[in-house]
Design a protein that fits this description.
Layout (H helix, E strand, L loop, with lengths): L15 H20 L3 E2 L5 E3 H4 L13 E3 L2 H7 L5 H4 E5 L4 H11 L7 E10 L11 E10 L5 H16 L8 E6 H10 L7 H8 L2 H15 L4 H12 L5 H14 L10 H25 L3 E4 L13 E7 L2 E10 L5 H4 L5 E6 L1 H10 L10 E6 L5 H16 L3 E6 L4 H10 L4 E5 L2
Amino acid sequence: MQMIKTPVNGMKDIEPREMEIRQFIFSKIRDVYSRFGFSEIETPNIEHIENLLSDQGWDNEKLIFKILKRGEKLEKSLESGKVEDIVDSGLRYDLTVPLSRFYSNNKDKLVLPFKAMQIGNVYRADRPQKGRYRQFCQCDIDILGESTNLGEIETLLATSTLLKEIEFDKYNFSFDINDRRILKAIVLYAGFNETDFESVCITLDKLDKIGFDGVKKELIDKGYKEDNIDILNSLFDDYTGDPVAAIKKLQSKIISENTNLGANYDSPSFEKDFINICNNLIEIIETVTKNADVKIHFTPCLVRGMGYYTGPIFEIKSDKFSGSVGGGGRYDDMIGKFTGMKVPALGISIGFERIIGIYLEDDFKVPANIKKIAYLIDKNLDISKKSDIINKALIERKNGNIVYIAELSKNKKVQCEKLESFGYPDFQIFNQ
């Protein structure tokens, strides 16, 4: 059988130039998030299939790389002919589900609220395209056990600090923010039933990709009324500009015209709850913008494509990328599925691979205070002189500099050009 030299479709090899940028950003992530009190943990790439198929990941659960049982267990299971009987685990599609399992298994050892940092690969059997791979790195911070909006405030401040320290502010990044409960009120206001919420949101989450015309067509195909869909669209179009003013405008409209909100909402109770939800979001926006030079937009059509979000949700946007370059939100119900007890939780993930792709396109140079030097030695040089050169290199290395030693090539020009592309601007050539 002939060996294949290219990576599996949807995966990629990482060359030294990219690896240098990745390591620079990893170091910044660890530095910045540690300063905000986040502790780094690690969870396995492989997760129990029951956890992955818990109706929390929406469409991502269709993209799981499933792992077969092994040995005798597999042989016995094959007799049934059912896929679910021959699989017992899978590659994780995000870091949130494994974190929730980690917390439930280790909660007695952890301080509350627990501020977790995770950096690791996740896997989705998606269609590969620019900025989207089947294996990609996620960098998450999560706060478990914090029920107040201090969690959202800390998370957004930490993330904006990180993006500035890796010089991503030159791409004019901003945060889109919404609340799943506000989105639910909008969907009900438009005349949909409460039981329709998840189905409507799964389609709305495709808005960036297929536009509202595509969303409308898909919702009509699902059997929803065109009038309800048009009301939904009108609500999304009306609330732009100043985020606080936009939230107050939507709050006023929903409360004064809540005839479509359905039998499950008692009006007095709903009004009080909805006002509190809106005020909570306003507090987050005002506190973050007061303490960090960052733009926040209220985006009532923002969904985030996971079923586990229960409150505020956010995405990172940039002029450099058409989609998001990160996102997250509050997921207060997930940990309870493991422990039987409700634990408030929220987190955010930066789009690490997308940021790396942007930096590679723009030929980003990693800031460095150290020198990178190439020593090129003629192959006929006397052994004692070679020893002196090696000693000189060791002194440079002890001083923290990087020294690359190699035999001088016959094609010196090409050799130097390649070294320069690897970040070696200084060459010292040692001839006889």
